[in-house]
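I hope you will forgive my troubling you with a question about protein structure. You will find the record immediately after this paragraph.
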Amino acid sequence: MLDIKFIRENPAIVKKDLEKRQDNEKIEWIDALLEKDKEYKQILKENEELRRTRNTAAEEINKLKKEGKDIAKKIKDVQEIPKIIKDNDEKLKTLKEEIDFFLMRIPNILESDVPFGKDSSENKIVKTHGEHKKFGFALKSHGELVEELGLADFKRATKTAGAGFYYLKGDLALLDIALQRFAIDFLRSKGFTLIEPPLMMNKDAYEGVTSLADFENVMYKIQDEDLYMIATSEHPMAAMFKDEVIDEKDLPIKVCGVSPCFRREIGSHGVDTRGLFRVHQFNKVEQFIFCKPKDSKKLHKELQENSEEMYKLLGIPFRVVDICTGDIGIIATRKFDLEAWSPRENIYFEVGSNSNCTAYQATRLNIKYKKGEEKEYVNTLNNTAIATSRALRAIIENYQQEDGSIEVPKALQKYMDGIKFIKKLKVF
């Protein structure tokens, strides 16, 4: 969230940014928030003064007692103070809840050159890489092909867990693991520390890292527990330093998270609904960085270069999209999506997102770093390295062979015991 001090000092900037996002309702929130903040500070000041008066009176009463003097008048003068303080504390609690409601929903301030647009149709293509391979045969959907090869079982997964799940088998399961190992080794070579995070988080921690709307739309809640299944390893990694102060010399902290991800919402229906692409559970390797504010733009570029280099090594054509003001969401100040090429549908589809969240998550999580004698909120950044379900679709389509087999990208063959082509599984 935005620091309330920033909003107090820069209401016009916040309103102007909300105009870019075409979020008129929240523009009206700013004045209401500042009024509540002003009232909160006034009552807080009043209570502080009342407590001082009460404490001074207590000292005077004790002194009068010792001197054997009458204390009735002095007690009468201050006897209403405890009730007033209690009533004020209740008002402060209510005001704090109202202020927090606004703060947790007012979005981050966008970078000045984020493209203006109302929705995803106005996102800006900034880069395209790779040639589109020509195929002399009709391509099959990735779900259809892996079922025919006996490498995935969607029917039995639906029987076991419901729609949106799958069994991976044989060399396709090995390919999923190979993608994870490929991404992990790549990021470790770039100075990232491997993290295997908790797969559940409590609500207090989760509120620090994502939009509150996600609790209803995306998260799986554990019944009768204050726990949610994680939607991405970004979330537990972001919360790792909650309520802590990091030493400046330790920044930037670069971590590489590997985990299954669990999401209730699986997107719109279409030709690839039955397959690996729109699913409730998948594996992902995530890049995450804690850094000083002055370094976040530079590191945002570094994260982008990492993702692009990995897809170049995999031999997958891709493009990079600059997300517009109406599509960016509340957490990021700038966001780029990487989209892989689908030769069967002749479209690009999203395989990862790269977000600079500046101090937005850190403010919610209260993560600071020590800057001399001062403390300042860190900046956080996150970017998908490899979401295996999406990368598998890209590989299956771009490396599909006329005989129905799937060629293994050269960068993955060392993780596949040297297997160069994935063929029909004959076991079961």
